[in-house]
């Protein structure tokens, strides 16, 4: 019962679906964040659910760990095979299986990326709303309960996955949920697997909720004299019921990064980027009302536009933020942080974090999905510099403490993986032990993504 | 280790919180639906989470079943103590603990009813959106994953519970979720307990999402020549992205019940009742656009109004529908059905069901939350008439089969309880066994609401 006998049997049964080449192992041994390289023993490229189930059964027999892999863009080391074994790379399972325009849903394989899915949907007038910064796979996004800039209006992966096909640790293939828009039929297994980071089962198919492309869109950006004014403007906009499709905060440091990478002429001040979706009258009315709220909070002027090209430029800059930030410190490794607090505490949380970073030796531009109370400081660390790494870890730990003290969560959308494991007990108390009970019930051998989310035995 | 030693100890420790009076047992032995009376052995009225935890520990020691109770309005016999033991009645835990207007959330005890919660919220300009027909308790609504007329816009209990306090089967008290609007921190335990029907733990506190009262509301009603036209009108409205706050279907038989109970002057034809929430311009524009879609589908005329009194009358009639229907057959017992299908199959599902009921010996008016694809035929059965009971059970079984054949679910919002247990295997296959694995992990003694949702051993 070893990983190597598992690999031999996988190779025998699945042939060249298993790779043990050094380049494949290296490609699947690193992440986009600061975690050290960890090579798996093999990489599997299944073509079908059956192959996944076969592989899982073989691995279960031999006690070989299995870690799922989309395109490797997760930020907390989720897809690193820290206990060795097999990485299951879903890149060959990337089909859009069935589009149901009338029901506004789509069935996809886990390996399709969000941008390719939206390309395939374009002609239908529908779109899939969840948009993390990276062009992640839908399977990976479900596994980490990802969200992005549109969650304030359209929700996170929790709200946009209707049904799943999952291969369990013993090789059983189950279906959760249905194509109905709601159900009270038993435990919400779909919700349980979304965000379970591959520790309870491997997602092999997803049915997603789609949204109609809005008739009209207005978008704009405006500066504020300080963080507090910007955040207060967000709170008031939400309370007035102005329906925001997106509302993003970027701090002055972040603007500096944008200027360096894309040459924008924005002032080096805190900004809000916003978008409204609806009828032509509605988006004009909403932009105008928002402009008034901005002015009341000493921001602005708020320039908005309904022109697609200006909008695309704005959001492209926002989505590429993580990459732009590296311009602030070329060659740096990145530690993403991701706290989410009740909106009423957001200004305080951002201000405390800003002061804490200013007093540290490293840069950490801040941006956030402020409509949800979620923000990121991207800590930039010189590779190999232990003092900077320690400073970053300390800053991140203080952010986590801050989030919990304010009634929030240590991760709004990135997930736990390796990076946030140390905060689980503080956030959940005995709830974490209940998660452990569930893990042991569904994966008694502890082979699915061991060491992530739940501490392995 | 018997129920009676448990009751003795409960009485010793919790004093008059435990009742064994005949009237109390009788009050907690019946439901609003067709299930036979089942008396519990005792009724507990806890004042606090600690008392719940103490009681659960005592029950665990003695092997005594525990079944939660809100106000007993569930429709599938969820709260009946079919294995005897203790019913935990949450009526003394009915406080609104804390309103956070700025964060648009509220912390409540499980025994508060939805209408009383909204009364307490009135001055804040916020409201809690989920509105099942009955004035259920929030704890009961969470346990059954309830929804109602506004789910099409504001979601179900799944979408409106942010955090929970839960007493586990071993007496541990855990907290799930947080006041943050989203989180990726581990398994979604909140989502797991919502809809778990008291089989995994007892909910002792809830943090709910609130919504701003809309600046303006428009509402109206219109007739259609047939079911298909009404449903097609719904589908087109959704696809056009006209933001509906409510869209309810009622069939001609249902209108007849309304006429008998409230003297409305509606025609005996299928109708849609709709409501729009937003700015004054928006709700007027949306009502006008909806009127055009209605006309295209041979419905109407669509009369709408922004007057609160007309609106209140409309929705009062709708919410009291279950009671009105009894006027069609005085003294009848009621079997609620509750299927939910993809919208594209909705007309077909309603039409097949209508024909099936017409060919049966019993009446079954149909109404539904058609924006979600969810509808109910309320089957009216003469008490003690075995042939009618059999006809109703057969009709309900065929509805369930129809829902599954069309890719839907056997229950959109009522839950499984006793009434839908026989369909769990057909709906979930091996997924049901995974639910059983979770149940056994979290309630190894099988004492929490035994026999519901999961078949007890």
Q: What overall geometry of chain A do the principal axes of the alpha carbons give?
A: globular
The biggest sheet of chain A amounts to: 8 strands, antiparallel
Strand count of chain A: 19
- Report low-confidence residues of chain A grouped into runs of 5 or more: none
- Give the count of helical stretches of chain A: 17
Keywords (chains A, B): FAD, Flavoprotein, Oxidoreductase, Transit peptide
GO molecular function (chains A, B): D-lactate dehydrogenase (cytochrome) activity; D-lactate dehydrogenase (NAD+) activity; FAD binding
Domain FAD-binding PCMH-type (chains A, B): 36-213
EC number (chains A, B): 1.1.2.4
Please provide a written account of the structure.
Chains A, B: This is D-lactate dehydrogenase (cytochrome). Chains A, B: InterPro entries: FAD-bd_oxidored_4_C, FAD-bd_PCMH, FAD-bd_PCMH-like_sf, FAD-bd_PCMH_sub2, FAD-linked_Oxase-like_C, Oxid_FAD_bind_N, Vanillyl_alc_oxidase_C-sub2. Chains A, B: Its cofactor is FAD. Two copies of one chain form a homodimer. Chain A is an alpha+beta fold. Chain A has four domains: 90 residues, Uridine Diphospho-n-acetylenolpyruvylglucosamine Reductase, domain 2 (2-Layer Sandwich), CATH 3.30.43.10; 117 residues, Uridine Diphospho-n-acetylenolpyruvylglucosamine Reductase, domain 3 (2-Layer Sandwich); 107 residues, Alpha-Beta Plaits (2-Layer Sandwich), CATH 3.30.70.2190; 91 residues, Alpha-Beta Plaits, CATH 3.30.70. Chain A is 37% helix and 19% strand. The first copy, chain A, has 17 helices and 19 strands. In chain A, a hairpin with a 5-residue loop joins strand 8 and strand 9. Chains A and B meet through strand 9, helix 8, helix 9, helix 11 and helix 16 of A and strand 9, helix 8, helix 9, helix 11 and helix 16 of B.
């Amino acid at each position: 019962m070893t990983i190597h006998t598992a690999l031999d049997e996988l190779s025998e049964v699945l042939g060249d679906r298993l790779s043990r080449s050094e380049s494949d192992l290296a490609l699947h041994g690193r992440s986009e964040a600061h975690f050290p390289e960890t090579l798996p023993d093999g990489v599997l490229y299944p073509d079908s659910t059956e192959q996944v189930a076969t592989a899982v059964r073989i691995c279960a027999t031999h006690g070989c760990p299995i870690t799922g892999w989309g395109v490797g863009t997760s930020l907390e080391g989720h897809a690193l095979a820290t206990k060795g074994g097999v990485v299951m790379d879903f890149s060959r399972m990337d089909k859009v299986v069935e589009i149901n325009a009338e029901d506004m849903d789509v069935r996809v394989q886990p390996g399709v990326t969000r941008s390719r899915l939206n390309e395939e949907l374009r002609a239908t007038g529908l779109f899939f709303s969840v948009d993390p910064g990276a062009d992640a796979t839908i399977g990976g996004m479900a596994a980490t309960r990802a969200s992005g800039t549109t969650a304030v209006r359209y929700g996170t992966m929790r709200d946009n996955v209707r049904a799943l096909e999952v291969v369990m640790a013993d090789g059983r293939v189950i279906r959760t949920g249905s194509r109905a828009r709601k159900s009270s039929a038993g435990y919400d297994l779909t919700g349980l697997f979304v965000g379970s980071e591959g520790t309870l089962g491997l997602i092999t198919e997803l049915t997603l909720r789609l949204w109609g492309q809005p008739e009209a869109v207005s978008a704009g950006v405006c500066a504020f004299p300080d963080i507090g004014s910007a955040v207060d403007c967000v709170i008031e906009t939400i309370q007035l019921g102005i329906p925001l499709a997106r509302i993003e905060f970027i701090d002055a440091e972040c603007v500096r990064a944008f200027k360096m990478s894309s040459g924008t002429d924005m002032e080096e001040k805190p900004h809000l980027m916003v978008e409204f979706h609806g009828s032509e009258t509605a988006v004009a009315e909403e932009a105008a009302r928002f402009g008034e709220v901005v002015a009341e909070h000493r921001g602005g002027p708020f320039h908005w536009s309904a022109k697609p090209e200006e909008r695309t430029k704005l959001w492209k800059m926002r989505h590429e933020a993580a990459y732009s930030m590296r311009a602030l410190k070329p060659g740096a490794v990145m530690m993403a942080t991701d706290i989410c607090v009740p909106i009423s505490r957001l200004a305080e949380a951002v201000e405390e974090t800003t002061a804490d970073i200013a007093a540290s030796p490293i840069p950490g531009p801040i941006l956030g999905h402020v409509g949800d109370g979620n923000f990121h400081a991207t800590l930039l660390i010189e590779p190999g510099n232990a003092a900077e790494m320690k400073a970053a870890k300390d800053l991140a730990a203080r952010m986590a403490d801050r989030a919990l003290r304010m009634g929030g969560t240590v991760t709004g959308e990135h997930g736990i993986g390796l990076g946030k494991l140390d905060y689980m007990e503080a956030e959940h108390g005995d709830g974490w032990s209940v998660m452990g009970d569930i893990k042991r019930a569904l994966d008694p051998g502890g082979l699915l993504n061991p060491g992530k989310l739940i501490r392995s035995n």
